[in-house]
């Protein structure tokens, strides 16, 4: 894998933050766009199953808004520490 194609931890955290906020807002079009942007960060070879894993994770959390809020707070704190 080419190191230039690898996203940084900061980029991935920002991407997940956008995904979770879109999920909390219930905005399907914004969520789909956030997932697409997240997948585009990944190297070409990892994109094939990444979208399915992201959607599965979102579905598993979708019935637990308090858990999503907790994840958003943790990501926000991690981003602030950088």
Number of helices: 4
Strand and helix order? HHHH
Largest sheet: none
* Helix content bin: over 70%
Percentage of residues in DSSP E strands: under 5%
What integer value in Å does the Rg equal? 13 Å
CA-based shape: globular
How many distinct beta strands?
A: 0
Q: How many structural domains in the coordinates?
A: 1
Uncertain runs: none
Blueprint (SSEs and pairs):
Layout: H1 9-25, H2 28-41, H3 47-61, H4 65-81
Helix pairs in contact: 1-2, 1-4, 2-3
Notes on the protein architecture:
This protein is mostly helical and 82 residues long. The chain has one domain. 77% of the residues lie in helices and 0% in strands. It contains four helices and no strands. The protein has helices at residues 9-25, 28-41, 47-61, 65-81. Helix 1 (9-25) packs antiparallel against helix 2 and helix 1 (9-25) runs antiparallel to helix 4. The longest helix is centred in the N-terminal third of the chain and has 17 residues, at 9-25.
